[in-house]
Q: What sequence folds into this?
């Protein structure tokens, strides 16, 4: 017997769960978000805690054996030397030993001052890459979500209104959409950024980037939702709701937009990574989030010189994070699309 | 006898072609009036015109509709919206499509009450359960939580009727309310309409089924190709049809 309790949504979720790779990617994303939410606890340092004596210091080796005996893990201090060509090199100073401490000063792990632990090396100003990546993830991962949230609210509402009312409302709204779609996204982003003063606070910059991303993406979604709502408004239950005196806005929000959910959910999953990339691009050019506040994009701007990459390849790690996040979102989005597509079953 | 609805010279055109041509009829208060006609006779356009919901290419070109002695054309869209669902309501032919599949029966009835009454949540729920049991749905509490596809065809039609009458409208327009039901269910739904008539509700029944109309209606209007060819009390028309088309309709039902 057909199980009436099983909705289209739960069928799609079950079919998604069968997609092995997508489940892995989904858990990777969950782990990434958990990591950045807990950044204050997991990261050993504040994102702006610098130590110029450790500029571009390589990853600190964690030692387990001291004088032939297995001991509690510890790290050696390092001293900075310049060779004849003024090239930096760090020399392990066996005289300084700092044992690793768990739950150190309210953080997961750390070492006593003046020791330093850089599990993924340090950047030009001796700031811990690991701590900065976690804190930067807060910006990069949340900007994608927030931007998508705003642009989808806008796109759904405007698309819904245009499709439902049709006529001149539709014409005007769609021409506005086309104005936004006319300009290539990256140039539109640069233009919008240049319209805002540059000397504003960190929070304002953050909100501004969110807003810019939202303004870029809503138009294409609005066009698709408009098409769907154009056909959904012909449904009998919309006519029935009208005959009951339900207001137009209530009909759009409750009787039309929920029926676009399976499409919008997939579109959301595929839009988030593109926003993460756009934010990274903006910050890479120094137009988005400003140093000292880290984002994966502006951390990568450190890695734009060949010399730095040669000498300190670990400054490219934020790129790996962007890459993994974007890939995971895309795989999950693709799997969701297959799961919601009845022809795939 | 007082007329709840008076339609005078109603004409509806689409691109110059007449769908309804100067249709005039009255719907007396507290009676069941049936509009009978074949496919494409313009039955549904009459209902849409009364509700003010003619679909896009159709246009009302002339006429007057008096509802409760008020000219509906003098109302603006917002006033019309508040009349729809509270003073007049519609029962649709196929309740599976007339319910939003993503909302429970209870939620959809609640939406109507929220628009038209100032009752609080508990009173609204009480009213809905009361209406559901009035249309003889078993276990209203269970039905309230169900989605449309979880009900049987007969249950859905009753729920649809319940949604229409939950606000105690003066006029219920029923568009082929029984066409998709089997004969025993049809009889039960007809009983329900008789019950409503007894309670003083006015019903405008739209149907192609002259057999059902003969059993249920008080007044009959025969519509053919957008023109009223005959109208009067149901007994008179059944016994002495004047028009050839009515005769052929009657012959079709034996």
A:
């Amino acid at each position: 017997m057909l199980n009436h309790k099983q909705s289209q949504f739960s069928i799609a979720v079950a079919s998604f769960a069968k997609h092995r790779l997508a489940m892995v990617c989904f858990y990777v994303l969950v782990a990434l978000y958990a990591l950045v939410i807990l950044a204050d606890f997991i990261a050993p340092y504040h994102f702006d805690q610098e130590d110029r004596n450790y500029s571009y210091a390589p990853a600190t080796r964690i030692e387990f054996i001291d004088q032939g005996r297995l001991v509690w893990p510890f790290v050696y201090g390092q001293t900075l030397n310049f060779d004849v060509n003024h090239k930096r090199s760090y020399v392990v100073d066996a005289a300084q030993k700092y044992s690793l401490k768990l739950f150190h000063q309210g953080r997961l792990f750390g070492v006593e001052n003046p020791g330093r632990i850089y599990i993924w090396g340090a950047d030009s100003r001796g700031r811990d890459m690991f701590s900065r990546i976690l804190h930067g993830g807060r910006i990069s991962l949340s900007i994608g979500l927030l931007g998508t949230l705003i642009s989808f609210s806008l796109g759904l509402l405007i698309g819904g209104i245009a499709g439902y009312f049709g006529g001149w409302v539709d014409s005007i709204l769609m021409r506005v959409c086309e104005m936004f779609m006319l300009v290539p996204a990256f140039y539109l982003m640069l233009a919008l950024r240049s319209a805002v003063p540059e000397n504003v606070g960190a929070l304002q910059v953050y909100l501004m980037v969110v807003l810019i991303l939202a303004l870029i993406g809503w138009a294409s979604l609005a066009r698709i939702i408009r098409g769907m709502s154009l056909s959904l408004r012909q449904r009998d239950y919309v006519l029935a709701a009208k005959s009951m005196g339900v207001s137009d806005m209530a009909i759009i929000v409750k009787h039309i937009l929920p029926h676009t959910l399976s499409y919008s959910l997939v579109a959301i999953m595929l839009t988030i990574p593109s926003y993460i990339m756009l934010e990274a691009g903006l910050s890479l050019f120094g137009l988005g989030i400003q140093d000292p506040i880290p984002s994966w994009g502006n951390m990568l701007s450190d890695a734009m010189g060949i010399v730095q990459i040669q000498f300190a390849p670990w400054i490219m790690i934020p790129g790996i994070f962007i890459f993994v996040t974007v890939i995971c979102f895309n795989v999950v989005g693709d799997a969701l699309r297959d799961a919601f597509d009845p022809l795939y079953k | 006898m007082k007329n709840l609805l008076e339609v005078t010279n109603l004409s509806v055109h689409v691109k110059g072609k007449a769908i309804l041509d100067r249709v005039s009829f009255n719907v007396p208060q507290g009676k069941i009036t049936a509009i009978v006609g074949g496919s494409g006779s313009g039955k549904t356009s009459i209902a849409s015109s009364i509700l003010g919901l003619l679909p896009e290419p159709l246009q009302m070109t002339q006429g007057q509709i008096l509802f409760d002695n008020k000219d509906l054309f003098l109302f603006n869209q917002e006033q019309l919206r508040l009349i729809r669902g509270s003073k007049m309501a519609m029962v649709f032919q196929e309740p599976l499509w007339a319910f939003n599949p993503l909302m429970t029966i209870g939620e959809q009835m609640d939406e109507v009450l929220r628009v038209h009454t100032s009752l609080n949540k508990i009173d609204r729920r009480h009213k809905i359960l009361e209406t559901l049991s009035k249309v003889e749905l078993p276990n209203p509490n269970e039905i309230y939580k169900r989605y449309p596809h979880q009900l049987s065809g007969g249950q859905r039609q009753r729920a649809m009727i319940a949604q229409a009458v939950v606000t105690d409208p003066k006029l219920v327009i029923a568009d082929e309310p029984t066409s998709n039901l089997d004969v025993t269910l049809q009889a039960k739904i007809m009983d329900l309409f008789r019950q409503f008539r007894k309670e003083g509700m006015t019903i405008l029944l739209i149907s192609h089924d002259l057999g059902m109309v003969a059993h249920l209606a008080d007044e009959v209007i025969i519509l053919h190709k957008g023109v009223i060819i005959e109208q009067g009390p149901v007994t008179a028309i059944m016994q002495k049809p004047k028009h050839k088309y009515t005769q052929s309709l009657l012959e079709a039902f034996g």
Notes: Chain A touches chain B at residues 4-5, 166, 235-237, 239-247, 250, 254-255, 258-259 (CB under 8 Å). The domain at 8-37+133-344 of chain A is CATH 1.10.3720.10 (MetI-like fold). The mean pLDDT of chain A is 86.
